[in-house]
């Protein structure tokens, strides 16, 4: 009798030491707490708001302002350095956070709220028991205010920064690098992107495409939902939206609907009944490329939070075996919550060990590998991701991505297929990585590949279907 592999061990994770809960007294106090915790621990904004005592009225604004500050921090710092007379390293870090908060409001908020932005930020110093900071903060923010004009332009300029709707807000002074001699540097500061990423994109893309790509990193595209085709007819769902005076638009993917106005998810028709799930149109391509059939045995190898998992189940008509694996207990919970809300029964979950994943001795007909990646195709909706990007980090991710492909290949049935996908546009994680893996596995070939650049209307992403060459040849002979 062959020796069985040892069963999965409980995931051992180093838990972040929790700080004592704080009760924010104002919206700006909440933002300062969030940004300081992000600075000192790296904890994501949306994870933090689950722990802070924020009421429903200020929570969305606290998230939006905090994420905008993180997303735009390189631009904000460039402006602040024009208005701060002392070296940055001589300003206490919590004080610099206060300055960033005030500048964030002045640069990107409405013009008629500038007085409130300054006065309320100064008041925050007192609330934080640092009245000695008030004069300094007031002087710096008044300096930022003096830089601003009400003029906007559609052209790049050393005295203008991206504001919204492809327009640039004009300043009274040229504080950004010269476009003729230091164009990539200008783009890095103005669009608040790390130098290493800017250099890669500038080398890779024509100028206009490069600029459009940078714009896509500043704001999340319109929300899309994927309708559960098992539960609802798209035409009827759209009709119900219009009856409720909710503006929506169809897309090239029949079950993918764009929501054209701000609306609570719970106010969309059929939320409680599991008739839809939030998913960008680009993210739907990976499951479609895998194309699992009803009755098949399918594996979603990096399944959390379960959006693609439920799409696979819908393509299977909720018939067959769909195993969703994750290394995080919280993500396992999210998968199960999604499956329960969408009333899908074929999904089973399994918590696995990242270093020693025991999954199954029985092969799978189809495997989806939605791999951890740099997220460069979705920077507009993941504020913190841009600051994690580096060539070193890419190499670490490549190791994980190659290991996942190896694991999937071992679990794949002889006539099976697998799809490797990322929410990245970096060739090192996508086309080049798949080519490298295929060189080491000559029995496999890539039968289809799709790469999509993000823009202001959709996310970007990559997916590739991989099958055994012998199986492809047999199909061709048939």
Kindly describe this structure.
This protein is of the alpha/beta class. 40% of the residues lie in helices and 17% in strands. The chain has 17 helices and 14 strands. Helix 6 packs antiparallel against helix 7 (134-147).
Element layout with pairings:
Layout: H1 27-41, H2 45-48, H3 59-71, H4 73-83, H5 93-108, H6 114-127, H7 134-147, E1 148-153, E2 160-164, E3 167-171, H8 183-190, H9 195-204, H10 207-216, E4 224-227, H11 234-243, E5 248-250, E6 256-259, E7 276-278, H12 285-290, E8 297-300, H13 307-315, E9 321-326, H14 329-341, E10 347-351, E11 364-370, H15 391-411, E12 412-422, H16 431-440, E13 444-452, E14 461-468, H17 469-477
Parallel strand pairs: 8-9, 8-11, 9-10, 11-12
Antiparallel strand pairs: 1-3, 2-3, 4-6, 4-7, 5-6, 12-14, 13-14
Helix pairs in contact: 1-3, 1-5, 3-5, 4-5, 4-7, 5-6, 5-7, 6-7, 8-9
